[in-house]
Amino acid sequence: MTSRPSRLALVGAFAAIYLIWGSTYLAIRFGVADIPPFFLAGIRFAVPGLVFLGWGLSQGAARPTSRHYVTTALIGMAMATGGNGLMSWSLQTVPSGLGALIIGLVPLWVVLIDWGRPGGERPAGRVMLGVVLGFAGVALLIDPTQMSGGRQIDPVGASVIVVASLLWASGSVFARHADQPASQALSAGMQMLAGGAVLLMLSALTGEWSRLDLAAVPQRAYVAWGYVMVFGSVAYACYLWLLKASTPAKAATYAYVNPVIALVLGSVLGDELLTLWTMGCSVVVVAAVLLVVSN
What we know:
76% helix, mainly alpha
């Protein structure tokens, strides 16, 4: 019989996905200003992936099966490569706070994916209202008609983050049900390593390596890179653990905490414009996510 996780462990894991993840958006934006995004994200996942993998094996974790290699690779490519890699690319043109807000669509996608999978149940009316409200809020935030009268968000970058949120949600749903190694460290390491390897291949294929000049990278970018590599990876492992140790709905609550933290940090530390229109759209999206995850 599996023992229940301690309250302290749960509080620590939730603090990690709330506070650390909320701050990584600005750190990534600082990093990709001087470091190619796929390269930054690839190293960010590959190095901690090796650490987690080695740690899991050193603790006596059972050797992964061939099926484990496939499932963890798929999760890593969906979440690390698709979710984080595309988001990192987009933060070259999209403010970090707004990027975090768009990523907040993840719980809404999860509802739709769960509904569409074999055996899935139709969401309650309140949940569907939250889904519609959330997507409407993001559509107004991207503001293709410039109704806000302010600076328009880059529609390509914002749309790519929407795709990234879909891929992250798909990986999250798959991770709940997929056959993975019993060791959380081993499973997280295999996912990070697979996702990081694909990101580094994308970096090479898109010509990032030829443009990379590490000697010219300022100290601020290195600090930001190190922050997301270390602390962001800890939060990633905590999220994977919470998907099983807690309920998916509770794990998804990061989606309405992260944008608040990211918007404040982006405005205070990153000189990002925080308009009344942005705040209004933020309230709509956060309320929608709250409707979904509190079901």
